[in-house]
Specification:
By secondary structure, this protein is of the alpha+beta class. About 10% of the residues lie in helices and about 25% in strands.
């Protein structure tokens, strides 16, 4: 019943099983250590103990078997000529959560999210297309 009535529970859930993830969903709580391992040491360059970052879901796989996501950072990547971002003050769908910073989506570090990481992430909402620059 959950897939059919997912819209009814999105606003009240914090931890969302990966099988229900969709494109443009935004999560918080991905630890630097986990991101460093998933990106084969490419991101972040400096791993800080206990520091976490948001994740932006760029693709949800068919049949709810998983998702691909990209880490976000509040500092504009100086080595990237073009980078999508989520505007500061964006009110996310389903939850009403408002972003407190501009979040740059690091698509070049996109990876398939394992269930072990997904279970620790907090669902913040769905980013409306109008908030993606």
């Amino acid at each position: 019943m959950a897939p059919r009535d997912l819209e009814m529970v999105l606003g009240s859930t914090v931890y969302l099983p990966i099988r229900f993830w969709r494109k443009n969903f935004y999560f918080s709580g991905a630890l630097d250590q986990a991101l460093h391992a998933r990106t084969e040491g490419a991101f972040p360059e400096t791993v800080l103990e206990g520091k976490s970052r948001p994740l932006f879901v760029s693709k949800a796989f068919q049949q709810g078997v998983g998702a691909a996501a990209a880490p976000c950072t509040s500092k504009r990547p100086y080595r990237m000529a073009h980078c999508h971002f989520i505007c500061k003050g964006c009110r996310l769908l389903h939850t009403g959560f408002e972003t407190d910073k501009t979040s740059y989506i690091l698509d070049r570090f996109r990876f398939n999210v394992p269930v072990s990481l997904s279970e620790a992430l907090r669902f913040r909402g769905e980013v409306p297309l109008s908030c993606i620059g």
